[in-house]
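dumping this here before i forget
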Amino acid sequence: MTQQLIVGLIVAAAAFYAVWRWMPAGWRRSAAHKLAAGTQRAGLVDPERAEQLAASLAKTSGCGSCDSCGSCGPKTPGPKPESEKAGHGPLPTRSR
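structure:
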């Protein structure tokens, strides 16, 4: 019986994580603020920690959905190398 309860809790946690991960960003931000406000009202955290909790929960995971981590490289392309400038690139090939 205990083993089934533990497995059930693990499955429920995984389902909650999947729903949280794939929910639209607006819904996630709203839910994060409501959850943080609820923990503050319950006396579990102070107002400063509640704001940190809301900001942490509202973030998306994975690459490509945010611009705060800086791991995707610069937004504007840098200068082209000498070999890519006009007249210096590889010669075009023609097939017959």
